[in-house]
Amino acid sequence: MTGTMFLTYLATALLVVITPGLDTMLVLRQVVTGGRRGGLATSIGVSMGSLVWGTASVLGITALLTASQFAYDVLRYAGAGYLVWLGASALWKSRRRRTPASVQEAAPATSVWGSLRAGLLTNLLNPKVGVFYLSLLPQFLPTTGNTTGWAALLIVVHAGSGLLWLFGVVWLATRAKRLLARERVRRWLDRTTAAVLLGLGVKLAFENH
């Protein structure tokens, strides 16, 4: 692989990483509900999911998603269901905050494991991530030499870039925690996150392979 090809891949990976989307919204919400540790755990979970999908693409497992409509649909519906469940949970919590504080039960903070699991499952149950690796990596891999080694490097670069970006989001969100902790802001964040999750879940469920 030439230096130009590597820089092109790096630029592509960074563009994909910094585009605001589900991962960013999920991390912001976890910072509010679980603090800095919750946000960091969610970021690690998302990156772990990327590593799993990347490894699967190298092993050829994700090729099954493009070859088998049934396998793709099973994973797609599972992911859609999980996203809808996360969105419904966020919407329910935002509605509960409309009741007087003296009436509300103190909601426990999201655990580190819960945050890690949310980031990991959100990524793993999205077949689009696997298809993304399967379609992107071959364009930048050399036709000769240690193809597997180069593929592993590109996967680590993408997952590592995503992790650093999400850590930056956590840092900014932590500094703005006082603002994010306000009831109106938290309610808005919950509802926005809920809308994104529900929208992506419905889209994932009804879109064609």
Based on the model shown, name its key terms.
209 residues; mainly alpha; 9 helices; 82% helix; globular
Could you report the average pLDDT, rounded to the nearest whole number? 79
Radius of gyration: 19 Å
The helix tally amounts to: 9
Biggest β-sheet strands, sense, barrel = none
Uncertain segments of ≥5 residues (pLDDT<50)? 99-108
The 3D shape can be described as: globular
Helix content: over 70%
What's the helix-strand series?
A: HHHHHHHHH
Beta-strand content: under 5%
The helix/strand class is mainly alpha
Distance between the termini: 31 Å
Tell me the total number of β-strands.
Answer: 0
Describe this structure in words.
With 209 residues, this protein is mainly alpha-helical. It is 82% helix and 0% strand. It is built from nine helices and no strands. Helix 2 (22-59) packs across helix 6 (127-140) and helix 2 (22-59) packs antiparallel against helix 7 (147-175). The longest helix has 38 residues, at 22-59. The radius of gyration is 19 Å and the shape is globular. The two termini are 31 Å apart.
